Amino acid sequence: MSKIKIKVVRLWNAFIDIIRATLPQDTNEKKIFLFSFVFYFLLGVFWLFHVSPDNGFTLLGYDTYEYTIGEFLIPYKALFFKLRHPLMAFWLFPVSMLAYLPEWLFGIASVLPVFTIAANLAMALSTSLVWRICRLMNPSSFYGNLVCTGVYFSFAQIIILSFAVESFPFSSLALLSYISYVWLSRNKADVYSDNLFFAIISGITITNGLKFVLAQYVVERKRDGVLKRVFNSSFLFLFFTSIAVLVAVVRWVFLIRPASPDVSLVSLLLGDSMNYVIHYDFFQWFKVVGYNFFVSPILLCVDAINFEGFDFSEKVLENLSLWAIPLFLFYGSLLLSLWINRKKQLVHVFLCFLVVDVLVHLILGYGLNEGHIFSAHWLFMFPVLLAMLSNLFRSVIVRNIYYLCLFFFSGVLLIHNLSYIVTGIVNVN
């Protein structure tokens, strides 16, 4: 057997192993996955019932439409390249075929429903992985971990992303799978799994590749070791990306340039990526950051599904005043958990992830007004930190009071967010 064939077989085996490790492992994980999927699916059906295919994509993201196959199948579409999501079309190609084939062959309006179900599945798997990570960090309390997972389940943007045609349900799942597989499970990471994770994480959302790179510093404390590991992990991503860029260049030379001479190759490769860099004046920046980073990911303050053009209305200010103390206590608990568990490896990984999001979105201002979407990249850290904080309480009574407070918080939050989401869906048109 040739060396190339051996490497391909090992890559395939690593890919199958990652999929198996991502799927629910035990009865509890399967129950959580099933419950989450049914809930997300029913909400998705409710959404599809009230939305038309024309505005279903534009209201909750355009990624899975623009970055997959689009309106028709062309051979190069499986390697459709744009900088923000360079290999998203490649990784979601099976989902794209399931979405578009019934429409092409039989005229069935299948695109939006299939992508919605794909988001349902991705977020349900993410929820089961959150449960798994909480259990590994806090093995002593089944119900405590269930409550912490319920907190994640009640977040406003987790509920919305469960039926959104966006890239973030898939990128969130990729990050959680990476954490579970490499950092917490008994699977031994090797060059093949590293290549796959780097290609998947970076391919779906390019900036998340920085998270993979920074996370290597947690393992390889020496710079030379990090650079070597990142270099060895990048071959698959570079291989597919090079082909995708080559296809884009050929397409530009022979198809686009003759028909539209004004379209440059750079604009074709970048797409509208740079349009998301947003600048605000000093005081407006603080308001936008405060709302999009700390409030809207958790608490829905407006009963509208389309969040563009958001402003601080009277309803928003009313909700902020009602939830100020609960949110303050919630974030205070997270900061306390970060400090207490600051020496743990998983916390270091979380901080590496968060540094990238702060740099890209907060400092550079990329998509700064879209915290309702990109917050999926860090919301899964919150329930895990809450589960880790419970290890601080030695008294059973104190621990149960802590879980009871979280249960009450998540329950009220879920009811509040659902009422706003349902109202927003009903009034979507």
From TrEMBL:
UniProt xrefs under Pfam families: DUF6080
Presence of keyword Transmembrane: yes
Residues that span the membrane, as ranges: 32-50, 104-130, 142-161, 167-184, 196-215, 235-256, 277-300, 320-339, 346-366, 372-389, 401-422
Record key words, sorted: Membrane, Transmembrane, Transmembrane helix
Record's signal peptide: none
Entry superkingdom: Bacteria
Protein name, UniProt field: Glycosyltransferase RgtA/B/C/D-like domain-containing protein
Species, as recorded: Parabacteroides johnsonii CL02T12C29
